[in-house]
Design goal:
DNA polymerase, domain 1; mainly alpha; elongated; 8 helices
């Protein structure tokens, strides 16, 4: 398995956990694991995962090793699929909405506005979703 693909999956797990309001230590663990995997020079991490050598690297714990093993063996992750299935539809897409741009703003303002909101945005999106659900 390509380490970039594995890192992307770990990052997606971190994002879904954060949107759901999960423990920040867990979120950071997946982010750290993604960075570690992304930094590997190997083109294929399969031998490292199968031998469990990858677990000796910083940030790779039992849970991330289980996800990586799933990815290597099946090309998919049961944990990631569970998070995808149980995360409200459209919630992740809401994170991609840039900061609003005021009409008549200059391009430099528009460029800075297209940047993502601070890391508190996922929690705010989930809180907004919960509030809207209560209105329905």
């Amino acid at each position: 398995m390509d380490p970039q693909v594995a890192a992307h999956r770990l990052t997606e797990i971190a994002l879904l956990l954060e949107v759901r309001g999960e423990n920040q230590f867990k979120v950071r663990a997946f982010v750290h694991a993604a960075r570690t995997v992304q930094g590997l020079e190997e083109e294929d991490i399969t031998p490292l995962v199968r031998s469990r050598e990858i677990s000796k690297l910083p940030g790779i714990g039992s849970t991330t090793l289980a996800v990586l093993s799933d990815l290597v063996e099946t090309g998919d992750s049961d944990y990631l699929n569970l998070l995808r299935e149980t995360t409200p539809a459209g919630l992740v897409e809401m994170l991609r909405v840039p900061v609003s741009v005021q009409p008549g703003s200059t391009s430099s303002t528009r460029d800075s506005a297209s940047k993502r909101l601070p890391s508190s945005k996922p929690r705010r999106v989930m809180a907004a979703w919960r509030n809207c659900r209560g209105l329905a």
